[in-house]
Amino acid sequence: MSIELIVLDVDGTLTDGKITYTxxxxxxxxxxxxxxxxxxxxxxxxxQVAIITGRNSKIVERRAKELGIKxxxxxxxxxxxxxxxxxxxxxxxxxxxxxAGDDLNDYKMLKASKRSYVPxxxxxxxQKIADxxxxxxxxxxxxxxxxxxxxxxxxxxxxxxTLWY
Length: 165
What we know:
- The protein has helices spanning 33-44, 58-67, 79-90, 107-112, 124-129, 142-153, 157-162; strands at residues 5-8, 20-21, 27-28, 48-52, 71-73, 97-100, 115-118, 132-133.
- The protein is of the alpha/beta class.
- The protein starts with a strand and ends with a helix.
């Protein structure tokens, strides 16, 4: 079965995990443009992406919209449960899922997914159960690395490159 859905955590995966507040209380997050290009390319290949995050953030909502991510869930306590509900809605199974996360609240989701990825600086506990510990840190191209590994393992390399030449 092929991977049809990538599920991503945010803090520590799509970002470096730091949360910065301005004096006015505004939140600041940084995203890696390389991750964004790979995510939008995955979507252009007819695949799907979901963000499931424990925190609520207008910044993350904006980034998801910019990238064309249709499945966006925030303020989630049980990521695995949300993922199972999404799979029922999309008529997919865990055999179609690759997930990326970096900490204990991602554990159950990572363990259930067909392929699981964690950034180099992820919790040691999730590194133990991951299929792939990425070379990159969260927020520094880890998601790009994950997607490019999937592109190769799913035999999509030519289609992926054709998007850009």
